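Job type: complex structure
Entries:
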Amino acid sequence: MTYDFFNKLFGSQIVAALIQSLLPLFFFILPFALFAVWFERKVSAHMQDRLGPMRVGWHGWLQSIADILKLIQKEDIIATENDKPLFNIAPLLVFVGSYAAFAAIPFSSAFIGSNLDLGVFFIVAVSGFVVAGILMAGWASNNKYSLLGAMRSAAQIISYEIPTILVIVTIVMVTGTLNLNTLSEMQTGHFWNWMIFGGPTFGIAKFLLIPFMILGFVIIYISTLAEVNRTPFDIPEAESELVSGYHTEYSGMKFAMFFLAEYANMFAVSAVVAALFFGGYQSPIGYLGNLIGIKWFIPIEQLLWFTAKGLFFVFVQMWLRWTLPRLRVDQLMAACWKYLIPLAFVNLIIIGLITLI
Amino acid sequence: MTIYDIIFYLFAAITVVSAFFVVTTRNIVYSAYYLLFTFFGVAGIYVLLGADFIAVVQLVVYVGGILILLLFGVMLTNRITNVQIKTGTIKIVPAAVGVALFAGILSAALLKTNWKTINTEVPISTAHTLGLLLMQQYAVVFELLGILLLIALIGAASMARK
């Protein structure tokens, strides 16, 4: 919808597509990353009975802007033993991988980067670029801690992709679509139409589905948490073992790129979980725009709801990070292959049987 | 020349140039990363052909699977266990014969095939039709492929246990 608007405004498909593809970056990811960095510090501080940043602005809300100004001024260090071309490309590749996922995420009924028919599948596919970028960073750093971190990260992301995909397949089986926009539209109405509450069709199957949908949600939430390398699955950058994993050698803006990619990824997976199970951009209680009869207000409300849902799951990720200790490598692999994957398979079969009713 | 032609030539150039560097670069890790761009270019060409499902599968299987496995193998052997990986030219004559034969087959296929060209306005999504075909017309083949993959998995697991 925004694409048509820009197309009419500028009369050129190229300009319209360019603006459309840059919108999420400048109006969403950058403000979100700045907010999330500050928020994470505040959340961690309050969980540990501290105050966190307090000096810059009200309760330190300008702290991340001060940090980014500092990072811009820092020297860009490239050690002589680093593989220079790969070292420079790696942060970009990681960021490209995580930003590409935003192309298929519906922010509201009026804005989706590209209304892909294979939306969720596309998001799974582009995460391969992130893995390649992480491996590139680890290898080019020419540092054993970086390489070990990159290896761990790649192994972890690939392993945890399997339960994620199995849960996505489950949802696709029930709804019959891979398009995140259609998926969100299906869950319209009130919150009892969300997939976590058994989907929009009313019947016995809906009530039977609820416990298995909740199980599916738990599986996908745990595995996406592992895919974005967050605690309790942060062994790729375990500070006490590996300095900080694959971005040990990076400084200045390149480090900031990794940081930005990490926060963008956190929001992307939260958004996918929200779109699959929690109605995407749909409001749980109906729209104010319908109530007072202003149609154009509905997409704005949807954007707010979507952001709220995404932020809530990001908050839960932070909450888990500052609550749980880190898993060991063997525990991590056992959790995936011995528990999550079999559970996801059983869940898939049971939900398949239920949908036959 | 429309915008789609330009995009096509862009992706074609990415594919061909990176494929050239894959075979000429001495550093095997560089080769692997040039391969990433080759796969990306091929995926782009699939999209322009209207084969959206194949394009995404290309990314999943080749970038997310095979390339990562390749990099993993190279990095584990090269840096961690100090096994030297040789990159050089050996056995030129058999290689040239093989490549010439393969090139002959490819160019014969290219020239002899009766290419179908259909003008479509907006490409429709292929996932639905593809799924129906796999589950109805080609169900037996599909199941057989599944069994083949299962055998490969069991084989890999049993080899890893030794």
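Summary: Residues 56 and 62 of chain A are 5 Å apart (CA to CA). The longest helix of chain A spans residues 13-47.
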